[in-house]
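Narrative summary of target 7.
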Amino acid sequence: MLLDGVEVNRDNIHDWSIPRLKGFKKLLGENVYWSRGDMHEELLLIKLIDIEIGRQEVVREANEEAQILKDALISKAGPEV
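Modeled conformation, tokenized:
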């Protein structure tokens, strides 16, 4: 499906950032509200975008926690000799 001039589909949805996905979701919501396009496909894509945003947020939080743990472990080890 073309959104803002780019192809967005089930296969490439994981390639987009959270802010870009939120923009796509807003555009799709407007299309559904005004009954533009294939509503079934747009609703499906909205659901997939919600899932992908949630997945990316979980991954980001896990990476941040891992970085904090890594920094703490490095600081406990002391300077290298």
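The CA atoms of residues 11 and 80 lie 46 Å apart.
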